[in-house]
Specification:
The longest helix has 22 residues. By secondary structure, the protein is an alpha/beta fold. Helix 7 packs antiparallel against helix 8. It is globular. The relative contact order is 0.15. It has one domain: Ribokinase (UDP-N-acetylmuramoyl-L-alanine:D-glutamate ligase, 3-Layer(aba) Sandwich), CATH 3.40.1190. The strands form 3 sheets. A 6-stranded mixed sheet has the order 3-2-1-4-5-8, with helices on both faces. A 3-stranded antiparallel sheet has the order 9-10-11, sandwiched between helices. It has a two-stranded antiparallel ribbon with strand order 6-7.
Length: 277
Amino acid sequence: MSYKRVLTIQDISCLGQCSLTVALPIISACGVEACILPSSVLSTHTGGFTGFTFRDLTDDMPAIKEHWVKENIKFDAFYTGYLGSAKQIEYVKDIFGATKKENSIKIVDPAMADNGKLYTGFDMAFVEEMKKLCAEADFVIPNLTEACFLTGSEYKEQYDKEYIVDILGKLSALGCKNVIFTGVSYTEKTTGVVIYENGEYTYYEHEKLPRGWHGTGDVYASVFTGALLKGKTAVEAATLAADFALECIKETSDNEPDHWYGVAFEKVLGKLINALA
């Protein structure tokens, strides 16, 4: 298999294990070349910190793209995370078109909402633009809240398979080719991921831990991207990502309980490398 190159576009927090500070090492550990395009730079992530600095890099994105075009730089895959504005989404779609290879894979994590609410600074106009980006994707990786906003579905904390399948159908109607639906829980003690590929439903269930941690969604999407580019099937990549994210949470909870701002994923990267060997 040839050496693959993926471009990941999302923010970078100088401290805080999320977004690009997670994507870059994890994708690299998978044996895939990880190229980055920061959408913004923050001194820390926004979860639990106050007074953080923020630098918007929206206006830098077109010039970066033009330089890549001039150098004839192409990417085997694209993986997008947190994008700060509708304008950035437009630039990302332009980058897709200008720098893709013939069979490039587009992976979109519509990072914009959780726990039934949009993140601060986002509105329904942003959701409408995110729908357009998801329609271009080969794989979309939403949580339940994001999937509900994308499809206009009622957000529920308790639900059954029929409810999830209905949302999956609506995502498909938007143009989302395949969906990796994270955090799907049918019982109180378990959670899992739904892989909806070519109209087929697969559910991978694992234990549900009592505490959540910042950045685990970014860990998940990064492992999925790296594993997929290494030749794993979507089901294999999705289950591997779930297992690794769970391992990261356990390691942090058991041995680094005061490390509140992210999971200590570096301590278990060796297991990911071995799993992909």
